[in-house]
Write a structure and sequence with these properties.
Elements: H1 8-18, H2 22-25, H3 31-43, H4 49-53, H5 58-68, H6 71-116
Helix pairs in contact: 5-6
Length: about 120
């Protein structure tokens, strides 16, 4: 395809920032973050039976551990589990977003290079 076949609004969009993919590679608060948050909210509605086999049963594991510790230690252990859960979710969210951002940028750069030829 040739660049002159692309409609002007799309050209402006591409030239206006998408061509500089380095802006989108970093984890920031931007349109890619909005899209990833939307995907996070909707992805569970589309899980398959196979997807459901590959979950982390964090609450169930924590409950089993809590039931095996003395009562006087349960509050402390529960707080530690909550911190672990928050930390793990933050870690997973960050690397998931970074992975998808770079994949998006790579894909757009491949498309743009096709128009340059």
């Amino acid at each position: 395809m040739q660049w002159d076949l692309i409609p002007n609004p799309i050209k402006k969009f591409l030239i206006g920032g998408i061509l500089d993919m380095n802006n989108f590679r970093e984890v920031n608060d931007d349109m890619l973050k909005d899209w990833l948050e939307f995907r996070d909210q909707t992805v569970l509605a589309y899980t398959t039976k196979e997807d459901k086999k590959h979950t982390i049963e964090f609450d169930e594991i924590c409950e089993k551990i809590l039931n095996s510790v003395p009562k006087q230690n349960r509050n402390f252990i529960q707080k530690q589990f909550n911190q672990l859960d928050d930390n793990l979710m933050d870690y997973i969210s960050y690397w998931n977003e970074k992975y998808y951002r770079n994949g998006f940028c790579d894909g757009v750069q491949l498309i743009v290079k096709c128009f340059d030829e």
